[in-house]
Amino acid sequence: MSLRKFLDFRDGRDTPKPFLDHLEDLRKMVIRMTVALGIAMTLGFVFRSELAAFIQAPLIAVDPSRADNLQSLGVADSMTISFKLAFYAGLILSFPVLLYFLAEFVLPALTGRERQVILAAAAVGFGLFLSGVIFAFFVVLPATLQFFFEDAQAMQWRPTWTVGEYYSFTTQFVLAFGLAFELPVVVLALVKMGLLGYGQMKATRPYAIVVIFFLAALITPTTDIITLLLMGAPMVLLYEACIWIARWMNRNEIANEDERRPMSRLRGEGGGDDEEA
Length: 277
Known about the structure:
The chain is mainly alpha-helical. About 80% of the residues lie in helices and about 0% in strands. The protein starts with a helix and ends with a helix.
């Protein structure tokens, strides 16, 4: 989408705005998103000890000796890693607010009803994102850590991980799953805009599955087949659910069009009678 098309799309039903006004809207959006993220990051930093202990729990479950045995190789690791954890925690906490501010910028010409729909979509998006994070942290991450721990031992190596490596791996891993679970929101948005339909999605299902596993391989911080399957399989199921939701959405649109046609015919006939009179 070109810049001009995007600006025309933003204007919607209103009178087209000057380019500088669009920049002002962008500035306000960035400020709002920064403030929301900053508040959430502050909360994450205040509770950094509890947050660190929570994130370390899956590793301790795999190897109890790691309870106080993660190596810190950097002088300022305690602060740099705390800021990273606060950022990722803040991103998760403020995710629905960030989605709403982004939607307000992209779609400013909204009615009250449409704003309610956007709020509902943001809530659903956050729910899916949180579901991906929870699924990754409590189901996939322990199995992945167990696999790499035993694989290192099978190679006669002692798996010694640093604090920075572990927390970077864990946060990227969890966020990757959270973003992957946003697939239905993206697909249904394309369906609502008319760029995708039930027939297209059904016909291209085999290609979509290949693309999904390719994307899963790109965003997963590991290269093992188990993690790839654990990420790709839920995404395929979510895409399948999107196909049926798209079918339902298309049927509703067709039904609404059929209901409007008799009304338009009646109005046309009425208009013709008035003209004759």
